[in-house]
What we know:
This is histidine kinase. The chain is of the alpha+beta class.
Amino acid sequence: MADMGGAEQRTMAQAVATRLWNSRWLLAAGIVAVLTVYGFANMSFYVVLLACAVLLLAAAMLPAGVARQSAEDAAAIEAGGLQQLSGEYLAAAVADPLIIFDRTATIVHANAAAFAAFGGIAPGMSLSLKFRAPEMQALLDSILSGAAASDVVEYTEKLPVERAYRVSASSVGHGTDLYVLVFKDQSEARRIDRMRADFIANASHELRTPLASISGFIETLRGPARNDPAAREQFLQIMHNQTGRMARLIDDLLSLSRLEMKPYLKPGTEVDLRQTLDSVIDSLGPLARENGVAIERDFAKGPLNVPGDRDELFQVFENLLENACKYGQSGGRVVVTIAHSDDGPEPGIDVTIRDFGPGIPEEHIPRITERFYRVDVENSRTQKGTGLGLSIVKHILTRHNARLSITSEVGNGAAFTVHLLAH
């Protein structure tokens, strides 16, 4: 208790000291006035002390009143400013579609975002006629009947394009008989959720297939093929191939994950495309010979440097050249071209890897860089493809502010061109 009393006394003393300091100029002027009167009027010294004491007391008390008045003035200014803000201004400041309506579910006001999202709405229109979906009708009934002060539903707008919204409804203030609907667009979040679900489903399927194959062969080796050396060797080779396929898939999944988590490239690093492409071609020489494919070079003269990460660009060209050697082997050759480009707003360098195989049907080209998308599923798996190579290429090029274009004609091969900025 004694400690509490001491704390209160210290707080009070600090408050008095603050008030005296805030009134120091007024206090100084008063003391000077008293001393002046004392000097010229032969005033008693005790009267002077009493006058100074009164001045100190006034100085200690006056700021509290001034502070209260200042707070009241600030509150009045704030209230006046808010009164000048109409509901229209407040609605316009909201980025999401917002609609204000009355007790009859008639639109009183809609902001610009609402007009853009739901064309054809206007003050005086009935919300019940505009939004006929059962969930929206239930939401309006719940709010207007007073069953709930606020409520939230999920709503999908079908036209002109499908959009998913989280719609919240609530009353505006007290006794205004006005209500507000706010539409929070969830379309992008839903799209990302679907992509994630599809990715997990595809990855699970790609891993489950070789696992099922390995499991089946293990059962066979334990049973009917237990004492059959030829069958055992064949099955072990298949199991080895299937584990290799799973290892490649896991490596590609990890590559994608690392790419998505990496920050953008730091400026200042350069890659010599001539040296990089030579290294890629040399590393894939055995694969080309195995498939009966000749790799031809057509490189422009002079320096061929671009900003970027050498290891990542090496991976891009390795993926593209490997695909050309595997899927275009019937053409017998692959041409790797490096050429200067002046088509864009900035000078660039184009790297094209062209094969002369069966080509890619036109309807598949827009989707060929999607994860796990395959033009020919059986042929892709035969060639030990994971379905992630072009997705990795796309991610790396995005990080390099570059792009990939694909041209193909069935029967005449395909050309994959990487467009890189030179500076």
